[in-house]
């Protein structure tokens, strides 16, 4: 069942969202060659805890980190590790959630490490823009399929592929609530949007084909063809004043 939030609940979610967005900014400050994904995970956890929150992903379904940190052809769910070191030219996806006063925020960004290839930069930019194409479809009168269609058609026009096996979602007292929000779909299909719906819209975009596979660690998901992948996510609420971006704390990546 889709949990509709009132304005007080959305205000509370904005606090969780702010901590989530700030955690990504703090992590971005530490991104450079030689840093391990475990170090990034630690600064994220410290920020969330200093704000009085808890990392949403730590222990979620048994996940061992505070954030999912995935490099290059890793799509999502990378496990933070001392052995995973950022190198010049990498792209690193950081997906983080913060739980605060009963609600979760969920947001992801793809950051370049130093100078990256033209293809990597184009992939990052297209993935970000596809998020905004999806947000533009999150309005009264539309349905979930309209978001997916907007994202998928934009990405197809860029020559990239949307990942289908993993999807966005409703969010609130739980990280993952109804409805599923696929990054592909048919316009006019799926649950109808209502004021008070809060969604994590999160295009995952591959430079090559859409197929992905899970690694033997049981978590890390990689592109099947070894090409790059990017991710961009915010927690957004549909209000009387339009869409409120709960996890955006500055104009940036
Ligand atoms: Mg996320
Ligand atoms: Mg999410």
Description:
The chain is an alpha+beta fold and 253 residues long. The chain is 28% helix and 26% strand. It is built from 4 helices and 15 strands. The chain has helices spanning 7-29, 37-50, 118-136, 144-158; strands at 54-55, 67-71, 74-76, 91-100, 103-112, 161-162, 168-170, 177-181, 198-201, 204-206, 212-214, 221-223, 229-231, 234-239, 242-245. The strands form 4 sheets. A 5-stranded antiparallel sheet has the order 8-7-9-14-15. Strands 1, 2, 4 and 5 form a 4-stranded antiparallel sheet that branches. Helix 1 runs antiparallel to helix 2 (37-50) and helix 3 packs antiparallel against helix 4. It is globular, with a radius of gyration of 17 Å. The mean pLDDT is 97. It binds magnesium ion (2 copies). Residues 95, 106, 108, 202, 233 line the site of one magnesium ion. One magnesium ion is lined by residues 95, 106, 108, 202, 233.
């Amino acid at each position: 069942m889709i949990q509709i939030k009132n304005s007080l609940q959305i205000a509370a979610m904005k606090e969780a969202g702010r901590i989530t967005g700030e955690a990504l900014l703090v992590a971005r400050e530490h991104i450079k060659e030689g840093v391990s994904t475990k170090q990034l995970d630690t600064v994220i956890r410290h920020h969330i805890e200093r704000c009085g929150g808890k990392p949403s992903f730590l222990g979620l379904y048994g996940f061992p980190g505070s954030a999912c940190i995935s490099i290059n052809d890793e799509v999502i769910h990378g496990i933070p590790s001392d052995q995973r070191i950022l190198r010049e030219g990498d792209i690193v996806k950081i997906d983080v959630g913060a739980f605060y006063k009963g609600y979760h925020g969920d947001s992801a960004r793809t950051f370049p490490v130093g100078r990256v290839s033209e293809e990597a930069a184009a992939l990052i930019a297209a993935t970000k823009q596809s998020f905004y194409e999806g947000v533009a479809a999150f309005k009264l009168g539309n349905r979930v399929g309209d978001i997916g269609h907007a994202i998928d058609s934009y990405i197809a026009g860029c020559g990239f592929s949307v990942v289908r096996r993993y999807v966005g979602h409703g969010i609130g007292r739980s990280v993952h609530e109804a409805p599923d929000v696929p990054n592909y779909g048919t316009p006019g299909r799926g649950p109808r949007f209502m004021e008070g719906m809060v969604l994590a819209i999160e295009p995952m975009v591959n430079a090559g084909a859409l197929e992905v596979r899970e690694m033997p660690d049981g978590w890390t998901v990689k592109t099947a063809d070894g090409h790059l992948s990017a991710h961009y996510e915010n927690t957004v609420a549909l209000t009387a004043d339009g869409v409120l971006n709960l996890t955006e704390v500055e104009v940036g990546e």
